[in-house]
């Protein structure tokens, strides 16, 4: 009983550390575009995001219930084996989060978590313990549909924003009023992030508690202390700031203007809030990236740079299987070594995290230099400095020529 309690404590600690990495990994989702356009100062933006992540974590538990009472069939699992399997899955998720953070790649913390848990469960228990229907309907399909939906919405909103303000076409700063709107929309994204991403760690901890009989499976809602712990941890992680990913998402995707940023954030927040209400555990990173690209395409004269889009999509595609592979390897150590396997996994996890962190210190990205250069990958959406005339301008030019003739 003492060893089981110790493992549960380790699972909770590791889950909260994942929650922390989720916070600094996904700060870019809410705050990259307002920082890029100058709507908010970097440190102010991150503090605002942290506060609203904290509030959002208390607003919904639907996503938490998807994980704690849906994705994995806990009734088929032994209380002795499943906590170590969750531990192994979290190692897979954290390893991928840290690696993509080091590379500045805006991958999905959510899919890293799902991949780690699925890979560890497949090795430790078997495919029968995974509810493939829930995985497909609540994880895979939203991953395919949500970024496309967000991109389309952002494209339409950008077209509308530029259309209703076209009298400012000849003024370089004519649309700066959207910067004020960005403060509201980016705040809404941060709030939405709390309603979705913080819930995933709550679901993992609740699942562990249910598995060992410390919580009834008839009530998959996270306990109040779990909600508080996860909310505070993700807010703290957000405050630390994911400056590497902010640089990629804020400048590497497209030369973001205030009207675009407003449109992208509106689309991101709407998509995440709707998904949270339905219990869809989607990737806020994918939704934010899709929105930024859609808003870029909404600007007149823009074209896609597919090399950058392809780089980001590779990260999307690789996240779940890569985290699953690490989770499966960690679970294999548990299967081979039993209780000692958990200790070995813990040591390996500490070594990996410390190694990646120390490597990041060689090329540190902070609030002071996060937006100082365009990410190496270039722009995903190319917009000419002087877009061609609009249809209205062409019509006026033809009328003028006709009068002169």
TrEMBL record:
GO terms for cellular component: membrane. This is Phosphate transporter. Keywords: Membrane, Phosphate transport, Transmembrane, Transmembrane helix, Transport. Residues 383-395 have a biased composition (Basic residues). GO terms for molecular function: phosphate transmembrane transporter activity. Residues 377-405 are annotated as: Disordered. The chain crosses the membrane at residues 42-60, 81-99, 111-130, 139-162, 224-243, 309-334, 340-358.
């Amino acid at each position: 009983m003492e060893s089981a309690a110790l493992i549960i404590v380790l699972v909770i600690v590791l889950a909260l550390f994942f929650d922390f990495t989720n916070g600094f990994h996904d700060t870019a989702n809410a705050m990259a575009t307002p920082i890029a356009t100058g709507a908010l100062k970097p440190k102010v933006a991150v503090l605002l995001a942290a506060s609203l992540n904290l509030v959002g974590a208390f607003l919904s538990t639907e996503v938490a219930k998807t994980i704690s009472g849906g994705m994995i069939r806990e009734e088929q699992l032994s209380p002795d084996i499943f906590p170590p399997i969750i531990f192994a899955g979290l190692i897979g998720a954290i390893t991928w989060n840290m690696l993509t953070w080091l590379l500045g790649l805006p991958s999905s913390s959510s899919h890293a978590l799902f991949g780690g848990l699925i890979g560890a469960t497949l090795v430790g228990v078997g495919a029968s313990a995974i509810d493939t229907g829930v995985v497909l309907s609540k994880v895979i399909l939203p991953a395919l549909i949500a970024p496309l939906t967000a991109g389309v919405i952002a494209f339409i909103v950008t077209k509308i924003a530029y259309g209703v303000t076209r009298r400012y076409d000849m003024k370089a700063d004519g649309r700066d009023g959207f910067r004020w709107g960005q403060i509201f929309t980016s705040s809404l994204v941060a709030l939405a992030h709390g309603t979705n991403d913080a819930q995933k760690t709550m679901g993992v901890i609740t699942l562990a508690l249910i598995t060992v009989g410390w919580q009834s499976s008839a009530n998959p809602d996270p306990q109040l202390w779990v909600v508080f712990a996860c909310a505070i941890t993700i807010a703290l992680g957000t405050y630390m700031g994911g400056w590497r990913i902010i640089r990629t998402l804020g400048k590497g995707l497209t030369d973001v203007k205030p009207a675009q940023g407003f449109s992208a954030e509106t689309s991101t927040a709407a998509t995440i809030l709707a998904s949270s209400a339905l219990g869809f555990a989607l990737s806020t990173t994918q939704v934010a990236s899709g929105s930024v690209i859609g808003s870029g395409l909404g600007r007149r004269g823009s074209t896609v740079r597919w090399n950058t889009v392809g780089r980001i999509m590779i990260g999307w595609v690789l996240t779940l299987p890569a985290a699953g592979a690490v989770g499966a390897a960690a679970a294999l150590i548990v299967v081979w070594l039993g209780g000692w396997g958990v200790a070995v996994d813990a040591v390996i996890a500490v070594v990996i995290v410390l190694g990646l962190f120390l490597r990041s210190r060689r090329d540190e990205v902070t609030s002071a230099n996060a937006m100082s250069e365009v990410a190496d990958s270039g722009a995903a959406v190319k917009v000419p400095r002087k877009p061609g005339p609009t249809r209205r301008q062409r019509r006026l030019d033809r009328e003028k020529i006709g009068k002169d003739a």
